Structures are given as C-alpha cells and as structure tokens.
Amino acid sequence: MEEQKRDAIAQFCFEGVYQSCQPFGNGHINDTYLVVFETGEQKTRRYILQRMNKDIFSKPVELMENIVGVTSYLRKVILANGGDPERETLNVVPAKDGKAYYVDAQGEYWRAFYFVENAASFEQVEKPEDFYESAVAFGNFQRQLADYPAAALHETIPGFHDTKARFEVFRQAVEKDVCNRAASVKKEIDFVLEREDITGVFGELLAKGEIPLRVTHNDTKLNNIMMDNETGKGICVIDLDTVMPGLAMNDFGDSIRFGASTALEDEQDLDKVWCDMDYFEAYTRGFIEGCGGRLTPKEIELLPMGAKVMTFECGMRFLTDYLQGDTYFKIHRPGQNLDRCRTQFKLVWDMEQKWQTMREIVEKYQ
C-alpha cells in the first residue's frame, strides 16, 4: 500500500515539495489521507487523497463524472453570488494526464481534492444550532443545484432510495429466512408489513409529475458539512460520492433520522429513543431557509413524510440484513443490526405520535 500511495501522489498535479502523507478522518468506505506539500517561504498546501472503494462504487469513472459536473457547476454559482469557490465547494485536483482520477498498476482508483482550510466537521449533533447550520448548508446545496439537470447524473448506487424495491427485498428475506431468525422477530416484521403503503408514496408522486427529480446528496449527516472555525457556519458540503438524481424530501429525512434522534443508532434501551421536536424544528427552519424558495409547496408539505420514509427504509434495511445473516452492514456484536432496526422503528412510531406537531412546524416555516 505504501508503494501504491507514493505512486498515486506522484501522479496528481500537487504544488510544491512533498512533505508528508497521513491517514485522515473517520470514513468507513474510502481510504483517506491528508497530503502536505511545502510551497516556499515556509508555506504549505494541503490536499485530500483517497483510494476509492470499488466494492461499494463499482463505476468509479461515472462517479467522478458526477462529482466534476456538480462541483464545476457549483463554482460558477458561487462566483456569481460573490462567494469563495475555494472554500464553499469541493475542488478536484486533476491527475497529470488531465483526468479526475488515477488508476494504479493494481487497478485501484485514486482521486484528490484541495483541503478546505480553517474548517472542521463534527461526528455528532451537540446542540440545535449546529443542526440548524447543517440544514442551511444542505438546503443551500439544493438551492444552488436547483437548475442542474438531475437526470444527467449517473446513479452511483442504483435504486438507493427506492423504498418499494427495498420492501420487496425485505419480503423475500422473510420468506427465505436463511438464518431461521424470522420467528424471533415477528413483531418487527409485522411493523414493516403494516406500513407497506408508505413505500410507494414518493415513487407514485414522481411518476405523476407532482414532485420534481432533483440533485440530491443522499448522505446528509452532520459530518458531511465543513463548519467554519471562526463563524461556526456550514460552508461546504463534502463526500459527494452518493450525489445522484433523487428527491429533496429524502435528503431532509435522512438528516432527521440521524440528527433528531435522542439516542445512538444501536441503542438497546428503546425508552431512550425518540424524535426530538426541538431538533426537528431547528433543521426544518434551516433547510427551508437554505433552499431559498426553490422547493415547491408540495415538497415542503411532504418533509415530515420524508423523515418517516427514510427512517422506516433504514430500519427495514437493518432488519433485512439481520434476516440475511448480517452480510451488508458491519456489526461489532451479535444482534447489533436488530438493535439498529428497533431504534429506527421506535423513531417511526414516535413520529407517528407527533405527526400533527411535525406538520405544524413545517407550516410555520413554509
């Protein structure tokens, strides 16, 4: 791997004299490194170098076409608005052959970005203000890309948020019951089956033309926002691997699922798990504000459903994986996927109890 790294570093258009390369961040998919070059007069330039995970992203060239297309477009929008495109979007460092990636002798794909200086990302939501700032940033991402032709993007993970298709995979997992676990989780299986009607809601509305296809991020966690060290404001959306055609409600909903929960994703004491309405309101306010009027009234009306559907879909995926023998999501102890499933279903149940409150919060900022 060291030789591969050195080879990759030599193939990108980095400025200055090489100084160091260290593992960076907490990502679980790509191998990420911080590379430092000295540019003279005791100044340095930092870069992010990544070896892309072909097991997860089987078409890395298409993925990089998405990233280059979106970031190039964002640069133009940011410049037109008087912003700083060096800090407000990711910037790809080209390889010496002009491509947005480099393929090494082992067939591994590498890419590089300019490091966003004087900013940091956070793993957990500590206070509503941080959640609000991440919402503004993700909403701003929607606003800036509202006129980008979403259908021109490749699907980096086909059917990623096709909830109806994932329901069918779940149903098959129950029928096959390869690990003989279905009998012990009848309550959880029934929870899914009782809510089959919500799996096709968005797909049907999209097919009827009642909601638009948009450029979506599809991994809208707090740690994918760079926060300015001085102002605390969200300045740059990162980790664009899953940028593809999608629905605004899903990006909103995935943030709520993760950030408005009062407990960890694998919490075993379900009494500790609920959807915090203060956090829901902070995110709703920030997201609608960041979108700057580019969402349709129908999309805004459906934001609570986005939260419910994304949480339900995630719980269903955890349960499916548990039934199939824990083959997709990594586990660190037996039953962890089942615990993850139960927290998501508790959140869904809690949202159902607070449905009117969620709708009123959305209406307040519409």
List the helices and strands and how they pair.
Elements: H1 2-10, E1 17-23, E2 31-40, E3 43-51, H2 60-80, H3 85-88, E4 102-103, E5 109-114, E6 119-120, H4 128-144, H5 163-176, H6 186-193, H7 201-207, E7 214-216, E8 225-228, E9 234-237, E10 244-246, H8 248-259, H9 277-291, H10 297-301, H11 303-324, H12 336-353, H13 355-365
Antiparallel strand pairs: 1-2, 2-3, 3-5, 4-5, 6-8, 7-10, 8-9
Summary tags:
13 helices, 5-stranded antiparallel sheet, 366 residues, alpha+beta, globular
What do you see in this structure?
The longest helix has 22 residues, at 303-324. It is globular, with a radius of gyration of 21 Å. With 366 residues, the protein is of the alpha+beta class. β4 (102-103) and β5 form a beta hairpin. The chain contains 13 helices and ten strands.
Q: First CA to last CA: what distance?
A: 52 Å
Biggest beta-sheet profile: 5 strands, antiparallel
Ranges where pLDDT stays below 50 over 5 or more residues in a row are none
Shape: globular
**How would you spell out the order of helices and strands?**
HEEEHHEEEHHHHEEEEHHHHHH
Q: Give me the Rg, rounded.
A: 21 Å
- Average pLDDT works out at 95
Task: Determine the structural class based on helices, strands and strand pairing.
Answer: alpha+beta
Classify the helix fraction into a percent range.
40-55%
Order of neighbouring strands in the sheet with most strands: 1-2-3-5-4
H/I helix tally: 13
Total beta strands: 10
Range of strand content:
5-15%
